[in-house]
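Researcher: I'd like a structural prediction for the single chain below. Treat it as a standalone chain; there are no partners to consider.
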Amino acid sequence: MEKKDDNTQDSPLPEKIGHYVIKKLIGKGGMGEVYLCYDPKTERDVALKRIRPQMNEIPLIRERFLKEAKIAAQLTHPAILGVYSIEESSTDLFYVMPYIQGKTLKTLLASYRQTKGSTIHLVRDFLTICHAVQYAHTKGVLHRDLKPENILIGPFNEVLIYDFGLAEYSDMTSESFEEMPVLKSHPDLTRIGKIVGTITYMAPERILEKLDTIQSDIYSLGVILYQILTLKHPFKRQSVRQFKQQINDEKIIDPIDVAPMREIPPLLAKIAMRSLLFKKEERYQSVKELIVDLELYFQGKADWVFASRLDPKNTSDWELQETVILKQTKDWAIYMLSSALFPGNVKLESQITLQKGSEGIGFLLGVAHKMEQRGLDSGMTVWVSPHEVRLMRAGIILKTIEAPKVIEELPLDIEIEKHYESIQLKINKETLFQFPVFLPVTGAHVGLVYKDLQYRMKSFSISVGSYNARIGCLTIPDTFFANGLYDKALEEYKKIIHSFERRSEGLIAAFRSGLTLLELNRIEEAFGAFETLHKTQKGILEWLGKGLAYRKLYDASEEAKCYEVGLNLFKNDPNLVLIEEEILFRLEQSKEEGRRPPYLFAFIALKYHLLPPTNTTIKDLAKALQTPPFLKNPTEECLIAFYLMKIKALEDLGETEAARLLGDLEETNDSSFQQLLSWVQKSQKEHSFRSKTLFDLLKNSEKKGRSIPLHQYLPLELALLQRFC
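Model: Treating it as a single chain, here is the predicted structure.
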């Protein structure tokens, strides 16, 4: 462990401290001195920190030194320098740590100032530091002296925080803070910053209010990140007195403006600036929040650039404004589609107030332009209404989320982010949901939809995503896809697949290339593209893609089987919601495709508990089916399974008689057929309603020119009809 380059000695080295053999003095601090030692018992080099002999007689300093050792010993994290042992006697006090032959971050930054080289790779080390600080905070420990000098980078990229000499527990009182001035009788302990921290890394509230908080450590982290990005301090402070005198003049300049010639991603600059906000309430409220933003950078998620401000009252902002009918609810609504296109990652921000009686307002993303897909039949909709939020695709509800904080007459700050693989909603800075979205959008318009005028909208602005090189590659083919340029999109997706083989970007590109091939009606090639995802980290997309391919072939049975395979193979996959979402979407959408498809998807939704039996769609589908006498009070799942001839499912549900009858029917057993026929004929007399009962279907089978093709009947109905034909 090397902290200081100055190895000058005031007196000869002792030969031993305890049983440890002294090799050299590494460095000195206000309270202690650090030696490189050899431990003959373990036969390894160690770092030994001992209280300076002249300080050993001062109880307060001895207590503080021991406290530092005990705090460090309690923190067991890979990025915090651990403590092997603490040894105390009346004449000596020291503790032993691992010896890491590395350089401090301070030394590394100084060398980069000489070479003017890029320091972006150090941001990964900074993320490690943040994880260690977050861990310390969960243990109730504030470091209070975070700075590059106290961060060690080893030869194998070990990143370690050390020197907990000023650390305190987060419930520290003002009295414990005030104890420090007692040390003024020792000048070497009272250099600027040594008592309460280092002035150039110290949060304003620590100086002005003598207040230590989690946000104080976050402020210090902000200074470190600022230095990594710019190789400069965010400000110049000489002393506490000077800071207090010039507090109103201290301005922090954006890192990009301070060092315009350096490689500084805007997202990292924003993280540093937010960490350094003067008021602690406006900074990150936890290190975890800071880590989330850092990980967005490493994942390649979008940084936002303002693109446009839309005004619902300004007709030039909108390509069209018309009345439409909403799916499922069949309500009339006003639909507004933006004139401008916003491809790629998009962020919608608005402040709305829902007035009394409001049914809410929907925000549209990724809608097809020129009404090629009838507006609401494309894109995503986030509908915000009192006490709940709905996520819809192509006008079909995928998810309903309770939102008790969304109430009438309360201003709501809405943030909706559509990334290349997810959509996220925040209301008043609180995340309500984040859903994966791997299907590329079919359009690039945004818009609004509402059923009444019981709302006020203060603002509505759009930002688009700027990208780093890692993820930005996908925006090019996605834009081609959204505009129907499928050949160009396919060409670009193939380049990404080749460049990012077996990586997330390449796998997503493979999936989207399959979707592009479907648009080009090259079905067999699409199956091949989806097959490449087999046994990869995005394996769930193989079965989603194959299901979509069978949909293109109008084969709902095979499509449903693909989704069932996905549900069974990827039970613990965080992206399982992709399959679940598709099943719920198809349950509604397939109603326009005939009689059988909605029952197939309803059965899967019930079997895998995606919907409760009380769901309106499930109840309506079950109501259209007659109940045979040998099913005693069947559940919706049981009744649908009977008509779909799911023999194994009926057996699992305990309906063995129904399962046996269906099994005999498949073997053309006359008695079973007569039993069914008798029931159907009898049901005609008991039911006066004109629904598609079995009797109606059997009767219509004798007529020529049926309005419904045979393949669209439920399997049981089809089996009976085929016996008549």
